[in-house]
Amino acid sequence: MSTVDDAVAVEETGGALPPLKWDQGLIEQVTTADAPPGCITLYSDFFRVGNFRLPATHFLGSILHYYAFHISQLSPMGMVRIRHFEFVCRSQWEEHTVEKFRVSYHL
Which end of the chain is more exposed for a tag (fewer CB within 10 A), N or C? Predict the structure, then answer.
């Protein structure tokens, strides 16, 4: 779609964008690249929005281990929740544990 088509579509819908029409071309645009063996692909939002940093903390590792998740299965918003909990605990000089995390967050 061109920008002219987008502008016409927005006018026709009263300012709301029309729903996406999923086709094979769009699916190929939004899927991640295949990672080589032994590597994973992470979205950039994982780092920007989720505040993920390397090396990862032991707390993040314990959360992933407890829930039996691989880091590539965690969404950026899931990372936000984990990091927020860890930051709050650190700012209050509280120990951040999986048990305390489970009190606040559920799958």
Answer: C
3-state secondary structure of 100: helix
Instruction: Check whether residue 9 and residue 39 sit in a common domain.
Output: no
- Number of Cβ within a 10 Å radius of residue 96: 19
Backbone φ, ψ for residue 61 (5° rounding): -60, -40
The answer to whether the bond into 55 is cis (omega within 30° of 0) is: yes
Q: Are residues 69 and 25 in the same domain?
A: no
Q: What is the C-alpha radius of gyration for the chain, rounded to an integer number of angstroms?
A: 19
Q: Say whether both 51 and 14 belong to one domain.
A: no
What would the pLDDT profile of 16-59 be if each residue is shown by its tens digit? 656 656 666 666 655 556 667 777 777 777 777 777 777 788 99
Prediction pTM value: 0.57
Q: Please say whether the beta carbons of 50 and 79 come within 8 A.
A: yes
| pLDDT (tens digit per residue) in 67-91 | 888 887 888 788 888 888 998 999 9
